[in-house]
Automatic annotation (TrEMBL):
Entries under PANTHER family matching the protein: PHOSPHOMANNOMUTASE
Cofactor: Mg(2+)
Similarity field: Belongs to the phosphohexose mutase family.
Domain of life according to the entry: Bacteria
Keyword annotations of the record: Isomerase, Magnesium, Metal-binding, Phosphoprotein
Protein name: Phosphomannomutase
SUPFAM superfamilies: Phosphoglucomutase, C-terminal domain, Phosphoglucomutase, first 3 domains
Metal-binding listed as a keyword: yes
Domain Alpha-D-phosphohexomutase alpha/beta/alpha: 11-137, 158-262, 266-373
Pfam families linked: PGM_PMM_I, PGM_PMM_II, PGM_PMM_III, PGM_PMM_IV
PROSITE patterns associated with the record: PGM_PMM (PS00710)
Domain Alpha-D-phosphohexomutase C-terminal: from-to ranges: 382-454
Length: 462
């Protein structure tokens, strides 16, 4: 790197994230915007933003940068990341940018970006070039021809129409549903979908909570995956006597489910449920899953006559696999769900529509739909350990269990199949954290013993 070039620490493997005033500000956003246009040779770019207090300023800087590169900016305004994904393909744009920090702390912001065709960006497919250009900051005078066009109304109408294609309204039954938007971007988009459902006579009653977008997040950062954030939705379900609870993160690309008792449904069981739903529609289709917790998904797919394909954890890997195998659906236990017929991208709105249709067709509650799968393949959920020496701990676990493993897989961390139980141990990309997942074949007591054994092994002093 030339001596006069300052590294930009906000560039990560697949997106941009950083602390405001330290890693990211309006000036850096402007440089990223110009680098984005130049690296992708873009003439038309979709731009959206979340509700964070800093997002409007950062999006404004990106818009100015794109215009200074002669780009036509299609402005979505406040929207979810998936609306940006969809709009890129819908408008035939050369790329898209969503200014969002999703569920990161208050003093963070970032950007999620895609290429033409809503394809993901990584270091090898454009993100590295954008970083190099932004770091060099040698763009010269503005180019002519740039413009901004407000397409918010048109884009949302087209997005809602596409999302509605995933649900058969005639199959729905009366349900009372709690929806927790977490004061993020989900509220207005959800309302547009709910209006479309009502126009078609859907017998659904919604109880909205934390619905108004508010960048100060008066009810906390919207991250329903954290156990401490789940009681608000769970309690609302029980208080209302609702049939279902839904919650989203800040840019609503992840959807989380609570059954009629208020119990949180772990992501791997939702992957299995949605996989079965798609295979009922499209027998023999391919389903993509991540490597952390796999047995339930693989069993569901096999019994439904489909083909399960494993891909590395992370949206860029899942999306690449979805395209490579032309899979109808892909899911991660972290509540990211990907759809071939939604520009090969993830959505936090399509999953709940599929689930309410399943509940309608089956006549079952959500707890009943997942009960047998939970019993057949109990799992620990992801357990995080803060450790000083990640490689040493991994070696310790491998030495203890590796010799007796019937199969091993290093696609994403260390996975050991012990016959009646299985572990996956992954290192965080950004901090000294080990993430452990354990599953078993119908034996919860065995699962709990192995979690306890592994916890001792990971946390004991050398």
């Amino acid at each position: 790197m030339p001596a006069n070039r300052t590294p930009l620490t906000c560039f990560k493997a697949y997106d941009i994230r950083g602390r405001l005033g330290q890693d990211l500000d309006a000036g850096i956003a402007y440089r990223i915007g110009r680098g984005f246009a130049r690296a992708l040779d873009a003439r038309r770019v979709v731009l959206g933003r979340d509700i964070r207090a800093s997002s409007a300023e950062l999006a404004g800087a990106v818009a100015k940068a794109l215009q200074d590169e002669g780009v036509e900016v299609l402005d979505l305004g406040l929207c979810g990341t998936e609306e940006m994904y969809f709009a890129v393909t819908h408008f035939g744009a050369d790329g898209g940018v969503e200014v969002t920090a999703s569920h990161n702390p208050m003093d963070y912001n970032g950007m999620k970006m895609v290429r033409a065709g809503s394809a993901p960006l990584d270091t090898a497919t454009g993100l590295g070039a954008i970083r190099d250009l932004a770091e060099a900051d040698d763009f010269g005078a503005p180019r002519p021809g740039g413009s901004v066009r407000d397409v918010a109304v048109e884009a949302r109408a087209a997005y809602v129409a596409r999302v509605m294609e995933f649900v058969d309204v005639a199959a729905l039954r009366p349900l009372k549903i709690v929806v927790n938007a977490g004061n993020g971007a989900a509220g207005p988009t959800f309302d547009a979908i709910a209006a479309a459902l009502a126009e078609r006579g859907a017998p659904l009653e919604f109880i909205r909570m934390h619905h108004q977008p508010d960048g100060s997040f008066p009810n906390g950062i919207p991250n329903p995956l954290l156990p401490e954030n789940q009681p608000a939705t769970a309690d609302a379900v029980r208080t209302a006597g609702a049939d279902l609870g839904l919650a989203w993160d800040g840019d609503f690309d992840r959807c989380f489910f609570f059954d009629e008792t208020g119990a949180f449904i772990d992501g791997e069981y939702m992957v299995g449920l949605l996989a079965a739903a798609f295979l009922a529609r499209e027998p023999g289709a391919r389903i993509i899953h991540d490597p952390r917790v796999i047995w339930n998904t693989q069993d569901v797919v096999a019994k439904a006559g489909g083909h399960a394909v494993q891909a590395r954890t992370g949206h860029a890997f899942l999306k690449a696999a979805l395209r490579a195998h032309d899979a109808v659906y892909g899911g991660e236990m972290s509540a990211h769900h990907y759809f071939r017929d939604f520009v090969y991208c993830d959505s936090g709105m399509i999953p709940w529509l599929l689930v309410v249709e399943l509940m309608g067709r089956s006549g079952q509650d959500l707890s009943q739909l997942v009960a047998a799968r939970r019993a057949a393949f109990p799992s620990s959920g992801e357990i995080n350990f803060l450790v000083e020496d990640v490689p040493a701990i991994r070696q310790r676990v491998e030495a203890e269990y590796g010799p007796d493993a019937v199969a091993r897989d290093e696609m994403d961390g260390l996975s050991l199949d012990m016959g009646e139980w299985r572990l996956n141990l992954r290192a965080s990309n950004t901090e000294p954290v080990l993430r452990l997942n354990v599953e078993s074949r119908g034996d919860r007591a065995l699962l709990e013993r192995k979690v306890a054994d592994l916890t001792r092994l990971i946390t004991e002093k050398a």
